[in-house]
């Protein structure tokens, strides 16, 4: 059963759920507090798998279990216990294997289809590290988001992240002052002996205390499919790292910042890593870099407000930094900016906007 759980409505479109205890209890709290959202996400990805990979939910579940249960049972068994708790908390006949399938949705389908996202990390003269990103994805996920605050009983670290209900890890930061953003990369690279990217995200949130320890974990466990991480810590270290089963490629900040969208541009160790980005990935990257350079020339202070202004840019709409669903879009083209996440790592503060940052929206604040 759940222990010391709570749920609040910080925003009309997202719940904040506090989970603590054993892995199973954390999962049960998660699943029971956002049961409707978990089931909504299963329905969304049932359609998603059919469209992008031409498989049913049952086939996706069989693939997820065959490919990743042995890896996780060997290297991360507690996360399987948490998934069991999520399933039993959400009810409605869901099983641990259904939750595992949600958590490997990138490995099942993003090798076939690219999503959006624009992210940036930037340092200030005062030593603050900002991380920020727009999360662009299927508009149906508006009905399936959750803010999770997790405190495992066996750990001194607690962590907060914006997620899709049912996923065990996504974009956020922890009480040690480490945080990250993530951008999808469409590539056929795959290795089921490594961690699925959302499970890797959880590992980073729960166990990393610094930029260097994050690199060590990425190297130790590897990622099963391509993903981009924007990493930073409260000591002032920050950089972008493009990860794939073939290895990781670091992109260091220039003039105090580094930005990324959904295509590879780092110095890769393996020439056979190929991605298939949409054209707007290149235009969004150029635009966020230009806007940041303009702010620096104009000596605009780096704040949540100035970052939101850049992430609200609509040049080239609907495929702009602040993305909108194209008129008449169907299928996987019905993407929009679902949320904006911004973090200050030294200060231990975060801000989340649920919706497009270019619209008038209330904000959700968090702090450690």
UniProtKB/TrEMBL annotation:
Record-annotated Peptidase C45 hydrolase domain positions: 125-348
UniProt KW keywords: Acyltransferase, Transferase
Pfam families: AAT
InterPro entries per record: C45_proenzyme-like, Ntn_hydrolases_N, Peptidase_C45, Peptidase_C45_hydrolase
Alphabetized GO MF terms: acyltransferase activity
Protein name: Related to acyl-coenzyme A:6-aminopenicillanic-acid-acyltransferase
Organism: Phialocephala subalpina
């Amino acid at each position: 059963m759940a222990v010391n759980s709570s749920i609040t409505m910080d925003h009309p479109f997202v719940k904040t759920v506090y989970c603590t205890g054993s892995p199973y209890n954390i999962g049960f709290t998660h699943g029971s507090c956002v049961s409707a959202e978990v089931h909504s996400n299963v329905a969304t990805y049932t359609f998603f798998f059919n469209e992008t990979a031409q498989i049913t939910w049952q086939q996706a579940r069989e693939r997820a279990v065959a490919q990743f249960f042995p890896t996780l049972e060997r290297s991360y068994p507690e996360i399987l216990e948490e998934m069991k708790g999520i399933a039993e908390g959400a009810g409605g006949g869901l099983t641990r294997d259904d939750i595992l399938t949600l958590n490997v949705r990138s490995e099942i389908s993003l090798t076939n289809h690219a999503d959006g996202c624009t992210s940036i990390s930037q340092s200030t003269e005062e030593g603050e590290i900002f991380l920020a990103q727009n999360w662009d994805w299927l508009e149906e996920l508006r009905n399936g988001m959750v803010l999770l605050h997790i405190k495992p009983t066996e750990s001194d670290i607690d962590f907060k992240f914006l997620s899709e209900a049912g996923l065990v890890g996504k974009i956020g930061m922890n009480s040690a002052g480490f945080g990250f953003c993530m951008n999808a990369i469409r590539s056929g690279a795959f290795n089921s002996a490594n961690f699925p990217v959302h499970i890797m995200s959880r590992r980073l949130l729960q166990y990393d205390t610094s930029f260097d320890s994050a690199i060590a974990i990425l190297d130790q466990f590897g990622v099963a499919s391509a993903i981009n991480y924007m990493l930073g810590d409260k000591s002032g270290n920050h950089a972008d790292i493009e990860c794939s089963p073939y290895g990781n490629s670091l992109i260091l900040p220039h003039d105090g910042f580094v930005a990324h969208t959904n295509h590879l541009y780092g110095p890769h160790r393996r020439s056979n890593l190929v991605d298939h980005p949409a054209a707007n990935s290149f235009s969004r990257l150029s635009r966020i870099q230009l806007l940041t350079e303009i702010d620096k020339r104009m000596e605009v202070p780096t704040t949540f407000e100035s970052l939101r202004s850049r992430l609200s840019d609509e040049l080239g709409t609907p495929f702009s930094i602040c993305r909108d669903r194209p008129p008449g879009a169907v299928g996987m083209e019905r993407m929009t900016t679902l949320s904006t996440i911004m973090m200050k790592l030294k200060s231990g503060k975060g801000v989340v906007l649920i919706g497009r940052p270019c619209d008038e929206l209330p904000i959700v604040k968090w702090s450690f």
